[in-house]
Design brief:
Layout lengths: L27 E4 L10 E4 L3 E3 L2 E4 L5 E4 L6 E9 L7 E6 L12 E4 L26 E8 L2 E6 L2 E6 L8 E5 L8 E10 L3 E2 L9 E3 L8 E4 L2 E4 L7 E7 L2 E9 L4 E8 L12 E6 L36 E8 L2 E6 L2 E6 L14 E5 L6 E9 L25 E4 L3 E3 L15 E3 L3 E4 L4 E4 L22 E2 L1
Antiparallel strand pairs: 1-13, 2-5, 3-4, 4-13, 5-12, 6-9, 6-13, 7-8, 7-12, 9-10, 10-11, 14-26, 15-18, 16-17, 17-26, 18-25, 19-22, 19-26, 20-21, 20-25, 22-23, 23-24, 27-30, 28-29, 28-32, 30-31
Length: about 475
């Protein structure tokens, strides 16, 4: 690319002629406003309400944050503010992952007063157009690579071509001043790197594994439905290697399903050269209260448990994002990262396939899916997983024995006996007995598909149980 005469450019102030309507952006458009506030694909802070298709963010710093981090995207919406001193704003490229999104870093666009339309985090930026409070205004923000452009009411406010962008969340915030209300409607977010895997009309791109998909799969009111009748799991027509998969699902009380990733034609997701199942479950159902940690929603089934558990109640829509890059796996559930693991954390991941089919499980339960889309893996744009914490205590002498009937937490993934962090620890409710003279554990009331291996102190570090 020739950059000999390319300079950082900021076009300031609105053009006085309307910009002609741009072509529809390539990518997947997510309609971000749902019929019920509990189904929003956002993390919500404050007393946000949804009234007749309008999201109302009250004064005091109420906020919405997308569940998914965004790289290249286009945002279209209408907004209305109250009060000249309203500090309501939009933040893109937000980076923190804590509960207090008020402290997140990113690029902030003012929506009212002197900061209206201005990228407030740029010292060389100038105020944008006049945006009177109390009126509805249309906004379009486009981000592609290092270029970002803002249009308000069809007029360009600025275009930046030298912005150091990072993949991050998109946030909407009301002002903290009294009366600083922010209202939003017709929010549409187009994820430029993703494409649809479900057209809302038929099962194009999918097939039944072993029998006809129509035996138990159908399209109803634009949603993909597993009816729960006897029949096959649903298999993608294409195989996939590295990818970023996003979808929403809804269960009935006690519901159970799963997403197969990189499975062979027959769907195997247990053992060497198999794929993996990402669990979908109504975690709160009483029938599931005694499951193993790796059996709850979002877990890499029988390999890595979800931590924390953030399933929404049955009957509400959940968002699920699965990112695979070679043997690295990242799962985001309802906006919370619950798994970020490699074979260093769970050696079993190194035994699984790195390419194969995607699939949706038929567990004889009714389950709905929508907004299925896939794009390239984002692993190189996001923080890497934390390295495992290695135990340093020496193996105990053969003269001691350890016994307990209390619940314990011990890392039991094959080939790595060191305790790591909470997401890699399995909780053993039945207690344990360990004979150090024999260098092995005997676990009561616990089963794992690969079993519990003897501990050789010359090759592995001795696991240190922690009591809960």
């Amino acid at each position: 690319m020739n950059i000999s005469f390319r300079l950082p450019v900021i076009l300031l102030g609105c053009l006085f002629t309307a910009v002609s309507a741009a072509a529809e952006p390539a990518g997947y458009e997510v309609p971000a406003i749902t019929d019920r506030i509990e189904d929003l694909p956002f993390s919500v802070q404050g007393d946000v309400t949804l009234q007749d298709g309008v999201l109302v963010l009250p004064a005091g710093g109420a906020s919405l944050r997308t569940h998914a981090r965004l790289a290249d995207f286009q945002l279209d919406l209408q907004f209305r503010t109250a009060g000249e001193k309203n500090t309501g704003r939009i933040v893109f490229g937000a980076q923190d992952s804590g509960d207090n999104a008020a402290e997140s870093s990113g690029y902030s666009i003012g929506l009212a007063g002197a900061a209206a339309g201005r990228l407030t985090d740029r010292a060389d930026s100038q105020p944008g157009p006049t945006i009177p409070p109390g009126q509805w205004h249309r906004l379009q923000l486009t981000v592609a690579g290092t270029t970002a452009e803002l249009l308000v009411n069809g007029q360009r406010c600025w275009r930046l071509e030298d912005l150091p962008l990072r993949t991050g969340w998109l946030e909407f915030r009301s002002g903290r001043e009294d009366g600083a209300v922010l209202e939003l409607r017709e929010i549409r977010i187009t994820e430029s790197g993703h494409r649809s895997m479900f057209n809302g009309s038929d099962l194009s791109g999918w097939e039944g594994a072993g029998s006809g998909a129509s035996d138990c799969w159908e399209v109803r009111d634009g949603l993909l439905l597993c009816t729960g009748k006897r029949g096959p799991w649903l298999r993608s027509a294409e195989e996939h290697g590295d990818f970023n998969l996003r979808l929403e699902y809804k269960l009935k009380p006690g519901g159970n399903s799963g997403v197969y990733i990189r499975v062979p034609t027959g769907g195997s997701h247990h053992g060497e050269d198999a794929g993996i199942e990402v669990q979908i479950l109504d975690d709160a159902a009483d029938r599931y209260k005694s499951l193993k940690p790796y059996q709850y929603s979002g877990s890499l089934y029988a390999i890595v448990p979800a931590e924390p558990r953030v399933s929404r109640p049955a009957g509400q829509w959940n968002t699920l994002e699965i990112d695979c890059s070679q043997t690295a796996y990242r799962v985001v559930h309802n906006g919370t990262e619950i798994i970020n693991a490699t074979p260093d954390h769970a050696p079993e991941l190194g035994r699984r396939r790195t390419a194969g089919y995607l699939g949706l499980q038929n567990h004889s339960e009714e389950v709905y899916f929508r907004h299925l889309r896939i794009g390239p893996s984002m692993a190189d744009q996001l923080p890497p997983p934390k390295p495992p914490i290695q135990a340093t205590d020496p193996a105990p002498t053969a003269s001691r024995e350890f016994r307990t009937n209390r619940p314990v937490a011990v890392h039991l993934l094959p080939g790595n006996w060191a305790p790591i962090d909470s997401r890699d620890i399995l909780f053993i409710e039945g207690g344990m007995k360990a004979s150090e003279a024999e260098h092995q554990f005997r676990i009561r009331g616990y089963s794992q598909h690969r079993g519990v291996e003897p501990l050789d102190p010359t090759r592995r570090q001795w696991p240190q149980p922690s009591f809960r």
